[in-house]
Amino acid sequence: EVLIYESSYSKYVGTYTTENNETIEYCCTEALREKRLCASEEGSPQTIHRVLPEIHSFVVHIDKDKSTGHLEAMVSVEQSGIYILQISNCKGNDVGNVILKGTAAWYNPYGYLPGDVIMLLPVDGTFAGCYFIIALIYGYLTYSHLKEVMPIQYGILAVISFAVVVTTSWFAYRIGTNKTGSYSISWLIFVVFLSNCLKTSARILVLLLSMGLGIVKWTLGTARMKIVLLSVFYLFFSFLLQIVKEVDNLEKKAVVSSLVSYLISLPTALFDTCFYSWIILSLIRTSQQLALRRQTLKLNLYKSFFVVLAVVGVLALGILIYHMYVQYKSKHNPDMWKSEWVFVEFSDFLIFIVLASVAFLWRPRYNNFRYGYAEFFAREDDDRDVSDDNSIPMDNVSITGELSLRKKQNDKINTTGGGGLVAVQNTSQLSTFEKGLIALHIEDEDDGTDGRPESELRKQD
Question: At what angle do helices 258-292 and 296-329 cross, to 10 degrees?
Fold first, then answer.
């Protein structure tokens, strides 16, 4: 016998055989008939259930000659909810063991996607459209200020463009699944891999910005290999974890054991925590360096970036607590599945907030050179504001690196080098240069001072 019913009617199917309601019996037995708990007649063992129009019952008759039975039925669903397909083979019907073969298709008014997944379809389409608009605007700004674009801004454009590809792939995958009712495991693996590449790329980008790459330093040094290893391990375990979750969600059952799922989740959370802690520490260190050098313009940029990350952290913590509350309440409210899509997509929403904010804060502009890497050190006895890099009093400034400028006339600049420090001596000649960029590159041997004045080295120590 086959039963199809909405989960709220499960109390009308089967009967409890113990006083503490721990054991439930679905098939009629002699003991249940004596207690008159079974509605079926003697000699006709069937599933115990109340006769209601909301409980659809189909009896499969087994042909004794062929030892086979066939059932083809369609049920019209009038109420949204979680539906149960129950198949029973009760003892006493002389059928014996039964092997089931066939399919059960659930078709909603909008297609084959389950009710707890369908909202992901428009959300993915919205993300794809928003990322596309941001990529177009950022690409236009990059082209308009091509000569002033910093290398890190090309990286921002690449990550946002990749986000367009990832969200569009998810949108196409869900459209195909909703239309055909079946999913391709190879296509699922592909889009999940792209999705985790985007998550990893976003974390790397935020880490590089927090470390001040292109703002307070040119290279990563020994940190480059650490970032690569952390990214590879995070990508591997997060990819496995999401594959398991996606297949479980589609199959509506656990594909792997809870132990295996836990063993995958643990390193994923560990490497994710490493990313977060590294980002916070790097952001604090970069802000301290900018404050020490009194580069107020760049410091304000990083203060805004810190606010964005703080808001995202608060939102992530809030949704985690709320999800735990919803899971607790779902035991008493079966309609909680309708909001499950919010928790599935919330991590992608946080990534969108971060990338959109990064694109806005580090957008290409006409005065890009004011945000690029240039180390200015004011003397300790200089109390003037050097927040505007275009109006720094050059008589009290030392610039680390090699000075490369375009000149209108054949004027000369006298410089002195030593220990990686180049000091402008004849500041009156600076007015003869065209508007442009100051290219800094240290060629001298490293003497351990990093080109910093002795006063700053003492202050840092």
Answer: 160
